[in-house]
Structures are given as C-alpha cells and as structure tokens.
Specification:
By secondary structure, the protein is of the alpha+beta class. It has three helices and four strands, in the order E-H-E-E-H-E-H. It has one domain: Alpha-Beta Plaits (2-Layer Sandwich). Strands 2-3-1-4 form a four-stranded antiparallel β-sheet, with helices on both faces.
Length: 91
C-alpha cells in the first residue's frame, strides 16, 4: 500500500463536493490534513487515483496527487499525529 497526498482547489460551493469527500473516506485509510488536502492509503497508482477523483470535481477545479514517503513535517494538522506517523512517512 502507498500513501498519497491529495491536494485540491475547489471553485464551486463546498456543498457540491460531498461526494468527493465520501470518495476520499472510502480508501483503506485516510486522514484529512487541511481544509484542502487529505492523505489516502491505496494500492492504486497516482494516475489512477487522479482519474478516479477527477469524476468528483468540476473542470475549473485543481487536483494534485503526490506519493508520500520518507520524511515529513507538519504543524497542527486535522489528522492525528499518530495516524500521520504511521501512514504519511512510510515508504
């Protein structure tokens, strides 16, 4: 399993993205990092994850998928520090 950081800019009202957030919560493990970023654990590739999440956003939105691993640092994340240590920094 790999952990990916999902970062997005959404142009529509926040209520239009409930399905996106439900999709992000459907992965094996997930953590909300900030208002516009999540970490998800999956066997998928970054491209496949991007394509899947693309179905839940509009053409004006922006989406970045970054494979996590190695060193990381954070301050005051929404996800628990323990979850981040166990998932984001794994290679």
């Amino acid at each position: 399993m790999k952990c990916y950081i999902v970062i997005y800019d959404l142009k529509q009202p926040q209520n239009d993205y409930l399905l996106l957030w439900e999709e992000l919560k459907s992965y094996n493990a997930w953590g909300k990092l900030t208002d516009n970023s999540w970490a998800v654990v999956t066997d998928q590739t970054a491209v496949r994850l991007r394509n899947q999440l693309r179905d839940f956003i509009s053409d004006e939105d922006r989406l970045f998928i970054i494979k996590s691993g190695g060193s990381a640092a954070w301050y005051n994340p929404k996800a628990s520090k323990e979850w981040l240590k166990n998932n984001v920094t794994k290679v």
